[in-house]
Write a structure and sequence with these properties.
alpha+beta, 87 residues
């Protein structure tokens, strides 16, 4: 028969190992943080990807959606084509 102290020590080591694996897994996950600004004429979205709780950004994605009809104030097709050409 095994001693109770040996069982307790083995159980504590197993619990510490599981906690370590869980914490390592949490740090390896990729977090996504999104910021969006919409002022009616354009919508800007910035997405930052980081590993765990780190401040170091692994990847950044920026999207800009512009409504040329609202921005230029016209529905004239030639004016909109000029706007696209300028952009």
């Amino acid at each position: 028969m095994k001693k109770p102290a040996a069982k307790l020590t083995r159980w504590l080591l197993l619990a510490a190992g599981l906690v370590t694996l869980m914490l390592a897994g949490c740090q390896a996950t990729t977090r996504r943080t999104t910021f969006t600004k919409d002022d009616g004429e354009e919508q800007t979205t910035m997405i930052f990807y980081t590993k765990g709780n780190a401040d170091l950004v692994d990847k950044q994605v920026t999207k800009l959606d512009i409504d040329l009809v609202k921005t230029m104030g016209t529905k004239n097709a030639s004016t909109l084509n000029d706007g696209w050409r300028i952009m």
